[in-house]
Amino acid sequence: MGTIQKPSNFQLCSLEALKNTGLAVEWNDNGDVLKRKSALPPHPDLKPKLTYLEGALADYYGIKDHQAVHLKKLTVTEYEDGEGVSVQITGVHTHPKSGQNTPLKTAKMPLHNDHYGFEAELKGIVEKIALEACAYVFERKSSQLSLDDKAA
Fold this sequence. Notes:
Blueprint: E1 10-17, E2 23-29, E3 32-38, H1 47-61, E4 69-78, E5 85-94, E6 101-105, E7 109-110, H2 119-138, H3 147-151
Antiparallel strand pairs: 1-2, 1-4, 2-3, 4-5, 5-6, 5-7
Helix pairs in contact: 1-2
């Protein structure tokens, strides 16, 4: 597929994991907030970045079992002065014994400082997620169907 070319006017606002497989992507395009939902599963290039967000959310709450945390939404807010962004990660923690789900939500974390110790890496991941979200929206970049999927 080659290098992803993100339009200069594309600013990721949010990426939400839909219940079954797809994504909802919301972006700012020259002041207009647009949203696209798709049932297409995300491309494998995006999955490790989403897993990183789950780990960051687990670390934020001090949860040792990162696999018990599931991402629901990433929200990206650009500062009005254009000098950076903050992110908020929303998810759910599934208790390993009871199976009960506890909602999790970080505070808005500015990515230009190092309060939690992972903001610099998180900033790079968010930039890569924005590129992948752009490809998902404009190029329909998603997982390829396997032979089993086609037969079903």
